[in-house]
Amino acid sequence: TSSEPSLGWRLFRSKQAAHKEASKAAQDVRSKSASPSPKSTLRRKSTDFIVGSTTALILENRPTNLPPKSAEEEQKHREQYEAMVEEAKKREKKDIKQKMMQLQQQIKHEDTVASAMEVWNSEILNNWDIMKHSRKAQELWWQGLPPSIRGKVWKLAIGNDLNITYELYEIFRARAKDRIKLLCESGPDSDEDPSPADWDRESSVELIKLDISRTFPHLCIFQKEEIVDKGTVVKMGGPYHDMLHGVLGAYVCYRPDVGYVQGMSFLAAVLILNMEPADAFVCFANLLNKPCQLAFFRVDSDQMKIYFDTYEVFFEENLPKLYTLFQKWKVTPDLYLIDWIFTLYSKSLPLDVASRVWDVFCRDGEEFLFRTALGILLLHEDILVNMDFIQIVQFLTKLPEDISEEKLFQSIAAITMQAKNKKFKEVLSSVKEGFTSQSSDKDKGE
């Protein structure tokens, strides 16, 4: 018998043997290529160029065992090669031009931000009460706040009507920490029977933990990772994990009537990214105390319907064709607006775009949330009009990740928040009165 294994055995040989053979073959190829034969060296020297790609192979002479190219064929191949080289040069020039334009736009944007920051710091922030409603401040606000002063402006714009102090935050944060510890100690194996309130707190804490893990996962700064090292679980928290957990836990203790609602973590996270945790808590609590946010986070169905009906008035006014289509497919606002309002677009839009939405929301209030929604619909109107119910809902619940900030704000600017000579607040008030009247008539009938 031969010392070589049979074909059948080679087909079912081990992976290690296959890997070993492949490595040996690769070494043989490298050793052969490292020492070219004199004939191949002479043949390479006789050419005027080195083959750098498969494209250049069309200029290579055929092997000696094949008929040589005719003059016409050689000329044709040369022309094809030159055309391909020219096309490659054009693409390269286009790429360079595009990169130069992007660089110029970036430099221009940085200069604009630096100039705006100078005005904010020297003129507006030092005279906030006087300057906040000035034309200059309003225009700069619309363009987007410089990141370095964004937290300061948000804090001033949101205000502190609840008069929350830093000491109060520390008290509620400590209380939340103690309750979490207590609930962990009296887990499922505990002999103690927790009160219904304890069970509510426990589920709320678990929801906070779950939600934090899903908050801006691509940033990797809020998640608490568990890594197994030699059988030992090592907990490695992101740098902002404890801050976010502290703010949310403190709020649950501060407002047990509201508790924790899924989506709150995105609001708190955006605030923490722009200010210190204590300031973030003050802004978070005051933000959630605004009428619109309070209605949604308390899941007040009557108040939410009033906001939805108001929104649809402006929807029909600005986008009648799309409004009719949504009516046809029964695409109601609650199917897509709730998530947008809950997180103030921080989950639905890219973070830099959402931050600019927050900028103008802090300036214009709840009206801008609904104006932004209509701006999103206007931006994608050409796509949406060709969709059915399922496609529309899927699209709106997961917006494209590459939404252009400039194009979106151009669409938002094109939306008019005035219907039948009534502004947003007036329409909201009229809808509220109509809803109250209907409710009272219904009560009388019963």
Structure description:
The protein is mainly alpha-helical. Helices cover 67% and strands 4% of the residues. The chain contains 22 helices and four strands. The chain has a two-stranded antiparallel sheet. The protein has a two-stranded antiparallel ribbon with strand order 3-4. Strand 3 and strand 4 (422-423) form a beta hairpin. Helix 9 (196-213) packs antiparallel against helix 10. The termini are far apart. Residues 1-15, 32-52 and 188-199 have low confidence and may be disordered.
Low-confidence stretches: 1-15, 32-52, 188-199
Helix content: 55-70%
Please summarize the sheet with the most strands: 2 strands, antiparallel
Indicate the proportion of strand residues.
Answer: under 5%
Number of helices: 22
Query: What gyration radius follows from the Cα positions, in whole Å?
Result: 33 Å
Count of extended strands: 4
Mean pLDDT: 84
Measured distance between first and last alpha carbons: 101 Å
Biggest sheet, strands in spatial order? 1-2
Shape: globular
Give the SSE order as H and E letters.
Answer: HHHHHHHHHEEHHHHHHHHHHHHEEH
| Structural class assignment | mainly alpha
